[in-house]
Amino acid sequence: NAGVTQTPKFQVLKTGQSMTLQCAQDMNHNSMYWYRQDPGMGLRLIYYSASEGTTDKGEVPNGYNVSRLNKREFSLRLESAAPSQTSVYFCASTGWSVETQYFGPGTRLLVL
Amino acid sequence: QQQVKQSPQSLIVQKGGISIINCAYENTAFDYFPWYQQFPGKGPALLIAIRPDVSEKKEGRFTISFNKSAKQFSLHIMDSQPGDSATYFCAAIPMDSSYKLIFGSGTRLLVRP
């Protein structure tokens, strides 16, 4: 089992460019999440998908969109990147026990 | 907005010492309190968790203490080792939205040899 995989691992964008962060899990989990991690801010929830076919906003959804493509895949899209979106992005998934979230290795995004 | 406040932001402990990280929450509508450990360059991973009807839980050198009346919970790492050097996050699951975790801001722990 690969667990939770994320691509790319690192990306540099210019302001205004768009990109999609990909996430996939092979644990047959129902729920998937996107977080951003900034120094001193902890992990902040951007969007989550409680089950296939549903998505909901988290704490910081502005500037992002998501797609739950199927049960395995949950993508995060930045339509017009801004320097404030420079961060490390983590995807996570969970089965029946929400307290046990499995995180991917992260994507480091730099927006110039 | 529901919040979980974590302190200290950073902590330096000598090998063999006790590391203590504290968290507090602002309302009573939380159902479960997990702690996550994150090593540099990696994603966080569940370390230990406690339910609000339990005052203490111990797993090896790691102990969670929970004080419901004070709305506080803490992580104690006994006999701290250099391999424990990592960032630790407390978290809580809101009762009204059981799909989500609310994370604290994190504590960067450095255990010196």
What does this structure look like?
- Chain A is 0% helix and 52% strand.
- Chain A has strands spanning 4-7, 10-13, 19-25, 31-38, 42-49, 56-57, 64-68, 74-78, 87-94, 102-103, 107-111.
- In chain A, strands 2, 4, 5, 6, 9, 10 and 11 form a seven-stranded mixed β-sheet that branches. Chain A has a four-stranded antiparallel β-sheet with strand order 1-3-8-7, with no helix packed on it.
- In chain A, a hairpin with a 7-residue loop joins strand 9 (87-94) and strand 10.
- The N and C termini of chain A lie far apart (36 Å).
- In chain A, 36% of the residues are buried.
- Chain B is mainly beta.
- Chain B has strands at residues 4-7, 10-14, 19-25, 30-38, 45-50, 56-59, 62-67, 72-77, 86-94, 102-103, 107-112.
- The radius of gyration of chain B is 14 Å and the shape is globular.
- The relative contact order of chain B is 0.34.
- The interface between A and B is medium-sized, with 26 and 23 residues.
Compose a concise summary of this entry.
The complex is a heterodimer of chains A (112) and B (113). With 112 residues, chain A is mainly beta.
Task: From the alpha carbons, calculate the radius of gyration of chain A and give it in angstroms.
Answer: 13 Å
What is the share of helical residues of chain A? Answer: under 10%
Give the class of chain B from helix and strand content and strand pairing. mainly beta
Form type of chain A: globular
Please give the largest β-sheet of chain A: 7 strands, mixed
Uncertain runs of chain B are: none
Kindly report the average pLDDT value of chain B. 91
Overall shape of chain B = globular
Number of discrete helical segments of chain B: 0
The number of distinct helices of chain A, counting runs of at least 4 residues, comes to: 0
Q: What is the oligomeric state here? A: heterodimer
Q: Averaged pLDDT of chain A, please?
A: 94
The proportion of residues in beta strands of chain A is over 45%
Order of helices and strands of chain A: EEEEEEEEEEE
Total number of beta strands of chain A = 11
Write the H/E string of chain B, N to C: EEEEEEEEEEE
Question: What amount of the residues of chain B lies in strands?
Answer: over 45%
Class by alpha and beta content of chain A: mainly beta
